[in-house]
Amino acid sequence: MSAKRAILQNVDILPEIFACLTTPLDKGSGMFVPSNSVHLQTLANAARCCKTFSSPALDALWWKLDDIVPLFLLLPAIHRLGRSYVLNGIVEAHDWQRFDEYAKRTRHLVYIDDENFHPSVFFRIAQLRNNRPLLPSLVSLEMAPSFEANILSFISPSLRQCTICSQTSHDLYPVVWTGLDALASIAPNLNFLSVQTTLSKASLLSISRMSNLRTLLLYCKGINDFSIIRALSSFQYLVHLEIFFDETTSLEARFDSSTGPILTMPFQSLENIRTDIPPKHLNALLMCLQPDKLKVLEVGALSSSLEHGGDPVHWEKSFKTIRSRFSNSLQRLKLSYHTTPQDTADRTPSRLFKMFHPLLELRALENATFLDFPWTEFSDEEFCELGAAWNGIKELHFVRSAMVRPPNATFRTLHTFAKHCPNLRVLSIPLNTLPLPPLEEVDASSSSLQILRLGKVSNIENMVAAGRYIKRVFPSLTELFI
């Protein structure tokens, strides 16, 4: 037997070959990209080709469903009536056997309720199957439900990941609550949940029962109560939390903002947080976390908070908490304002380096980003102090979407980072190219910087001389963006 023929008959290798034609999962969002129709046709042809290929090709073909219609049409009693499918007739035992033969292969379902099926179909199927799961091996579910029956039909004890997204409507309160309550009761091993829809307090209580969650993404439409943190704090396995509020300016907090809510069991394992919580509440959130656990912190504030003038005070308080509680653990920090640069320039002072002093003691920091953050227009001397403190930094970004004043950083700043930050690989910084030091006064550098983004550059008089200076300071540079 030839090697090629042996491979194509190997039951251990064939699933790996056909898996190359399946749709990958985006680990960041927990969502799939649409299936490739050519790949699906190839798998269907392979399944019909020979007995050896049939089972592994069918496993790959039904591994992920973008549409539930092909599966339901395996039941002869389902047919189209007008604009919707209905179930009209008897479903025999052999019909269910054929249905289950394919349904058990499905691991991932993307279900967008497009009104293909009349609601009675789901109610009737649930009765006929005595509420047994339609997809007993389902691991991942993405859905946008519009009524209770369809969301209940697809929840299985085997589920590990679930994404629920739908339009914002108070009419969906019962639907979302029903789905979340069923997940908490039926899928005890669920470890990933993303909810992007209207929520009620009853829905939050259901989420708090999902004790094995490791990743939770909440886009809280309809929730303006910071006490949600208290409801989530008992998750002892939760590692990644993303929580975004619908109206952060009206966020309610019924506790002392300096100490945070009183928690009987603070987050035990939480390492990553992304949120748009207002600066005045950030310190309270940080106080809810275990010391030296947090590795990633990303905060996106709204420009409306700048109108009250207290943001620098709140940020400084939070920075001191970060220093005292996470100086040995925080590896990635991203602070941003969702605003126009003109607004921040008009409302805030450009330089308050003193408020950043606590951050200079973050010994584990590897990646820092300040996006339209109003107080980062540092002088060369201040950048020098920052570079000397963050000598282990690998990526550093000071990004302004527009500049209303010339940048303060000069070539001296670039030389500072080359000298003090040997691990720096990516640097983004607005640059003022005047004055340009003589090239012979610049010592050769051993910097490992590979990517330099200068953003808004002002006063370039000699592009060639500037390029030679940058190349001498960063000899390993492969990409330059201006």
Taking strands numbered 1, 2, ... along the chain, how are they ordered across the largest sheet? 3-6-7-8-9-10-11-12-13-14-15-16-17-19-21
Structural class: alpha/beta
The total of helices stands at: 17
**Shape, per Cα inertia axes:** globular
Overall mean confidence score, pLDDT: 82
Largest sheet: 15 strands, parallel
Radius of gyration: 28 Å
Beta strand %: 15-25%
The end-to-end distance, rounded to whole angstroms, is: 60 Å
Structure description:
The chain contains 17 helices and 21 strands. The model is unreliable at 344-349 (pLDDT under 50). A 15-stranded parallel β-sheet has the order 3-6-7-8-9-10-11-12-13-14-15-16-17-19-21. Among the domains are: 1-62, no CATH class; 64-199, no CATH class. The termini are far apart. The protein has helices at 3-8, 14-19, 37-49, 51-62, 69-72, 93-103, 119-128, 148-153, 173-186, 201-207, 228-232, 279-286, 311-326, 341-347, 380-389, 411-420, 463-473; strands spanning 25-26, 31-32, 64-65, 78-81, 84-87, 108-112, 140-144, 161-165, 192-198, 215-221, 240-245, 272-275, 296-302, 332-338, 367-371, 395-399, 426-428, 431-432, 451-453, 457-458, 479-481. It is 32% helix and 19% strand. By secondary structure, it is α/β, with parallel strands linked by helices.
Keywords:
alpha/beta; 32% helix; F-box domain-containing protein; globular; LRR_dom_sf; 482 residues
Q: Briefly, what is this?
A:
With 482 residues, the protein is of the alpha/beta class.
Topology of this protein?
Layout: H1 3-8, H2 14-19, E1 25-26, E2 31-32, H3 37-49, H4 51-62, E3 64-65, H5 69-72, E4 78-81, E5 84-87, H6 93-103, E6 108-112, H7 119-128, E7 140-144, H8 148-153, E8 161-165, H9 173-186, E9 192-198, H10 201-207, E10 215-221, H11 228-232, E11 240-245, E12 272-275, H12 279-286, E13 296-302, H13 311-326, E14 332-338, H14 341-347, E15 367-371, H15 380-389, E16 395-399, H16 411-420, E17 426-428, E18 431-432, E19 451-453, E20 457-458, H17 463-473, E21 479-481
Parallel strand pairs: 3-6, 6-7, 7-8, 8-9, 9-10, 10-11, 11-12, 12-13, 13-14, 14-15, 15-16, 16-17, 17-19, 18-20, 19-21
Antiparallel strand pairs: 1-2, 4-5
Helix pairs in contact: 3-4, 9-10, 12-13, 15-16
